[in-house]
Write a structure and sequence with these properties.
The protein has 275 residues and is α/β, with parallel strands linked by helices. The chain has eight helices and ten strands.
């Protein structure tokens, strides 16, 4: 009995530890972020200079049909691919959720590249209903910080049912334009028209998917006020949404063992996912 248990546990760990890697655009992307050179690694847990986007899929061992496409943060300059992506796979897999970590292209002033990557990722995951027992009506997006901005954009900029997420999970998301984000997303010479086109608060509509939002009151990088304002606009459009503001935690606590409310946000999210 113990031997069988160990074999099963090793199998689970192996599945969670080795993702299925899917190139997003095997025949070439429809747009270009104009980055050149090889991918870089600011540290072993992050990546930048992405020009060939991928989905790193961690199938659940006992899937419940839910898929989450995770968009790591990094200020649209690099990706916290581990802390805000792959490190979440064991927990999500444990609760029956298939996690797909999106290694998306940095906009480099061409935001349409990042947005098209997440939209394509949603379409791809809906094409694997049999492979990973995916429910095509339970495909959502998740993002942290700048990744939260991208997840928000996916939730308000979809062009049809094939790339509309069914829900959005946002951790300390950046939802309000500022000079730094505008420069990374649209370039130094961005027009007001271009900025307005991708301003999240101006693009929420009645069929925007439901939202789970969590942040910290003492975040020194992205103010909790940004989450509050997005929540208010969602409420004005009658979009089912929840907002959790924790008193402490700062920024970047997604999978930080030091975060005092780690159990709370995961318990709240698990409950929300099955509502």
């Amino acid at each position: 009995m113990l031997c069988c248990f160990l074999v099963s546990w090793i199998t689970v760990c192996a599945q969670m530890g080795t993702p299925v890697i899917i190139p997003l655009w095997p025949n070439g992307a429809p747009n270009d972020n104009h980055l050149t050179g090889d991918e870089g690694h600011p540290d072993p847990r992050s990546v930048n200079n992405v020009s060939k986007p991928e989905l790193w899929v961690y199938p659940a061992f006992r899937p419940n049909g839910t898929v989450i496409i995770a968009c790591p943060g990094g200020g649209y300059v690099y990706l916290e691919i581990e802390k805000e992506g792959t490190a979440l796979a064991p927990w999500f897999n444990y609760i029956g959720v298939t996690l797909a970590v999106l290694k998306y292209r940095m906009p480099n002033g061409h935001f349409e590249t990042s947005l098209s990557d997440v939209q394509e990722a949603i379409k791809i995951m809906r094409q694997h209903t049999e492979d990973w027992k995916v429910n095509p009506n339970k495909v959502g997006v998740m993002g942290c910080s700048a990744g939260g901005n991208l997840a928000c954009e996916a939730a308000v900029q979809f062009t049809g049912p094939e790339n509309r997420p069914d829900f959005q999970i946002l951790l300390y998301p950046s939802t309000i334009p500022n000079s730094y984000m505008n420069n990374e997303m649209h370039g130094a010479n961005a027009t007001q028209e271009m900025i307005d086109k991708y301003t999240i608060l101006k693009n929420v509509k009645p069929n925007t998917p439901r939202a789970f939002i969590a942040c910290s009151a003492d975040d020194p990088i992205v103010s909790f006020e940004e989450s509050i304002q997005y929540f208010r606009v969602l409420q004005q459009n009658r979009i089912p949404s929840v907002l959790h503001i924790y008193p402490t935690g700062g920024h970047g606590w997604c999978e930080g063992p030091w975060f005092h409310y780690a159990r709370e946000w995961k318990a709240e999210l698990e409950r929300w996912l099955v509502e």
